[in-house]
Write a structure and sequence with these properties.
279 residues, alpha+beta, four-stranded antiparallel beta sheet
Length: 279
């Protein structure tokens, strides 16, 4: 009675029977029927045993609520056991192929004196696996779905691109200004370094040239025999005492020599500055 029939292909109707729903006196149909679109219940099978005294009145209801109409029943079978002895009943009740959406919670209700034991309630059903062709690509009428491509506001993208380009250009201008300032500072530092090096080189060159000129003059005079031989020969003798005496004990400042030294310094600075005169 409770055997479920297997499916064979998506193009055939599937028939089946649920397991026992009545583990108690109440059950939830969502936990009983396969949740298939288009499923229809073709019949209800139930069995139970009553325990009662023959003279007592007892009525048993096997029922399901109407899920779409509150307070009503989509299925309700009534068994009147009044003035009857307890016994076991078995029924197969056909239904009008009622869709799954109508089947609300099920229950066994007892009125009067007595008890229901060992209840079994099962449902025969059928459904077409391709009731909704889009439920499976193997269905005959399946139509591949076209993805919903969202509309893109191109003007918004263009505005964002332009704003990005403008911000990027501003960043480049700032970077260029910073690089120009750094380059100018670097060039100034390089020029100052060259200037200092040139001053050192000129000082060394002037000293070298003066020394070489003095040696050349000395050799010329020696060749002309103008300088007496005693100039380069050590004279024998003792200590020569200083004969010059200062009257007041102070050596006067040579103002003429100071002016000459200042003039040479100014001339030297002028020569150095001319090397770096910007054109």
């Amino acid at each position: 009675m409770l055997v479920c029939l297997p499916s064979y292909s998506y193009s055939e109707i599937i028939f089946g029977t649920t397991p026992n729903a009545a583990a108690g006196y109440n059950w939830v149909m969502q936990n009983v029927l396969p949740q298939q679109a288009g499923l229809e219940v073709t019949g209800v099978i139930y069995r139970y045993t009553t325990v009662k005294i023959t003279e007592d009145d007892m009525v048993v209801y096997v029922q399901n609520e109407d899920a779409q109409n509150a307070g009503q029943y989509i299925f309700r079978e009534v068994d009147d056991w009044s003035q009857k002895p307890g016994n076991t009943i078995y029924k197969l009740v056909p239904t009008d192929n009622i869709l799954i959406d109508r089947w609300g919670d099920g229950s066994i209700q007892v009125e009067g004196n007595g008890e229901v034991v060992d209840p079994v309630v099962a449902y025969n059903y059928r459904y077409d696996p391709c009731f909704d062709p889009q439920s499976n690509p193997d269905c005959p009428d399946y139509v591949p779905s076209i993805p919903d491509i969202p509309k893109v506001d191109l003007s918004m993208i263009e505005d964002q691109s332009n704003r990005f380009i403008e911000e990027n250009e501003e960043d480049k201008v700032v970077e260029a200004d910073n690089e120009d300032q750094e380059e100018r500072d670097r060039k100034k530092a390089a020029i100052q370094k060259k200037k200092e090096n040139l001053e050192i080189a000129l000082g060394a060159t002037n000293s070298t040239e003066l020394a070489q000129e003095a040696i050349a003059k000395h050799m010329e005079l020696m060749a002309l025999s103008v300088i007496p031989t005693t100039y380069t020969v050590s004279l024998e003798g003792g200590q020569y005492e200083e004969t010059v005496q200062l009257r007041d004990g102070n050596l006067p400042v040579n103002k003429k020599a100071r002016r000459v030294g200042l003039a040479q310094q100014l001339l030297h600075e002028q020569m150095v500055n001319e090397q770096y005169e910007e054109k």
